[in-house]
Amino acid sequence: MKHRIILLVCASIIFNVQLSTFNLVAQPLPQGYFRNPMNHDIGLSATFAEFRSGHFHSGLDLRTGGAVDQPVYAAADGYVAKVSVSPWGGGKILYIKHPNGYTTVYMHLNSYAGAIGKAVLKEQYAQQSYSINKLFAPDELPVKKGQLVAYSGNTGGSGGPHLHFEIRQGGANDLHTHATTINPLLFGLPYTDNINPVIRGLRVYPENGEPFDVGKDNTLNVNGPFHLGIYATDAAEGSTAKNGTDHIEVYLDGTLFFLYTTDAVPIDSSRMVNALIDYPLFARTRQAYLLTRALPGAEGPWIPVRMGDGIFRLRPGSTHHIGIKVFDIKGRFSERTLTVNVGTAVGTPHPISASGQAVKYNQPFNLQLSSARFQIKPHTLYADDYLTADCSAKMVTINPSLNQIPPHQSYSLSIKGSLPGVPIDKTVIALVNGAKVSAYKTKHMGEWHTASVRDWGQFTLMADTTAPSVRPVNFSEGKPLKVTMLKVRIGDNLAGVETYSCHLNGSWILAEYDGKTATLFIETRGKLRTGKNELRVEVTDGSGNSTRRTFTITR
Length: 555
What we know:
By secondary structure, the protein is mainly beta. The chain folds into four domains: 44-187, Glucose Permease (Domain IIA) (Distorted Sandwich), CATH 2.70.70.10; 193-342, Immunoglobulins (Immunoglobulin-like); 357-463, Sandwich (Chondroitinase Ac, Chain A, domain 3), CATH 2.60.220.30; 469-554, Immunoglobulin-like, CATH 2.60.40.1220.
């Protein structure tokens, strides 16, 4: 049985240190209960709890040799508790609940096997929808350990063929809300890793001064308090070269100062990853520097254990040693030691915008401008900050002054105005980021337009009067059909595709939507009659603009 309980008791150095405990797993984890869900050795293209934009990676990405349709097997006895099908996110997902209380989750599937596939198809036709979420009773679809349940794929938001595999504990009826994901490798799955992790970069973040890279020099000269940023990756046989690490330890003069580990992550708190890393740097470079400093709005029993607030406050004129150790799941590690000389000079304080509105992270905040207003709930920010907000040049700009981190949750943004010649219901709030424009689903009341947004930046009103596009890819009007899988490209210029439906000879037909390529895949095998057939495709965008096209197909 493997159960991590880490107890830290550190003496005070120049600041007060309190007793800290770090217990992520509710009970000892069963070893050997779950099998590898695939029949080949585990090779990973992503490890558990890797840093992603807006979330932790909640499972293991098992490599499938760049191919789809690799067999996927039930990791243990249980029953199919849920299937979820979507063009986005996890794509085609399978949830299997097990007698010991855990749930295994299999994502980005290409298809479901046997009775599971038949049940999914039946539900899609019953709902007349490709996207479904279906719960099953324990006696409907029982499975045995090692039973073929699905085939791997590249559906949803997947960046390439692989199997995303999770082990979850708890959760509401949807098996998602309030659930905790646990590193599957802690359950004893066979995994080879004889390669040490790599410390790829260290950064110093002075409280009074600009951040700087440590480089190869192991001697630091600092003035005043600072915190550290650590960028590290791991690799293993058969895995990609820059996967996430297992845990990181930082020592100050031989005493543990900071500990970050990745045993388990509550799904509801996953977005807090943005507050644990240097987010602006990550957004630019995709290099995730884990920060030792704490933000009060990003705390919980699973957040890193720090001595105090994770900021080094060292006595002027003193010399100290900071040790960094980075571990992989097998206990292999790399380390680096820095000698820190603390000067007596005081750095230049960071400027604080005098025009910004002071906002407490744990309190609501409402602001009314001349042509805009927004309402922020408590815990939208991760720390107290100053928000700069103004209306100028037909733009509404909202940005935090101190912590350039996306909001933890959505807030309400309203913009007042009208666009000449544009109906109210075709007016949308859009985020403008250079040449990139993203529109939000917008509600209207008089001259006010309101959207729920989870971004900072520049917002404006835009007209969405263009109907979605519908274009055949591999067949032509009036020409004999040479394929059975029809492909239709659909798209929208602003609000995005909201709904679509396809009918063949007057009857609804399943069309699988791939969001990455904006393509509908319509399998017509056994459904076409000899001679002429009519395919009707109707697409509606988020502003209610619709396109209906009818194609005559000859078989």
